[in-house]
Amino acid sequence: MASQSLSLPVLLLLFSFHFFSAKSTDFLVGDEDGWAVPNPKEADRYNKWASHNRFNVDDTVHFKYEKDSVMEVTEEEYKQCLSSKPLFYDNNGDTVVGLDRAGLFYFISGVSGHCQKGLRMIIKVLEPLNLSPPPSPNSTAPPHNNSSALDLLSVSCPVFGIFFVFFLSFLFI
After folding, report:
1. Which residues have a Cβ under 8 Å from the Cβ of 131 and sit 6 or more positions away?
2. Please, are residues 103 and 87 in contact by the beta-carbon 8 Å criterion?
3. Phi, psi of 168, rounded to the nearest 5 degrees
4. Which residues face 62 on adjacent strands?
5. Domain residue spans of the chain
6. pLDDT confidence of residue 22
7. What's the pLDDT tens digit per position in 3-57?
């Protein structure tokens, strides 16, 4: 009986680390439908899909497709639906692209006519959260060593999580 009452708080503690840890996410492009030419009524399908997700630096986008390809291109090439020298190209049917910077990423199909039919997408990767104020350009004073809000946040989330889990465990004992 004692081992069962102890296992619940330990299980809840381990589960809480899932919610309070920072990690990257792998997004499956187009969800279960994958990367395929949309029907004519859904020509903006992939941009709608991208707009419903929040992409961060170090996330990945996973393209699954058949008899097609994925190209990362410039904004101008995206608008033209054409690229002779893409930034990235793959046609293996199972492509993972790392989002290694904040900003816009432009993707199109490399198969002739597919981009014009809607097989293209813009992904906006958010700037990393920086809670520290920028240094003043006129500041001549040496920097002081106060804890930043980011330090407080990085400590308080796990501490809050542990406190919350132990509080919940006492409710179940």
Report:
1. 148, 149, 150, 153
2. no
3. -65, -35
4. 28, 96
5. 26-126
6. 58
7. 555 555 554 444 544 444 458 899 999 999 999 999 999 999 999 999 999 999 9
Which uninterrupted H or E stretch holds 79?
helix 75-80
- List the beta bridge partners of residue 123: 105
Read off the tokens for 161: 């999580």
pLDDT at site 23: 82
> Mind giving me the DSSP string for 95-155?
EEEE--SSEEEEEE--STTTTTTT-EEEEEEEPPP--SPPPPTT--SPPP-PPPHHHHHHH
Torsion from C-alpha of 67, 25, 55, 14, nearest 10 degrees: 160
Q: How far apart are CA 114 and CA 38, in angstroms?
A: 9
Tokens of 11: 């299980």
Report pLDDT digits (tens) over 123-162.
999 998 775 666 666 655 444 444 444 444 444 445 445 5
> Which CATH number does 26-126 carry?
2.60.40.420
pTM greater than 0.70? no
Beta-strand pair 88-90/94-98: unpaired
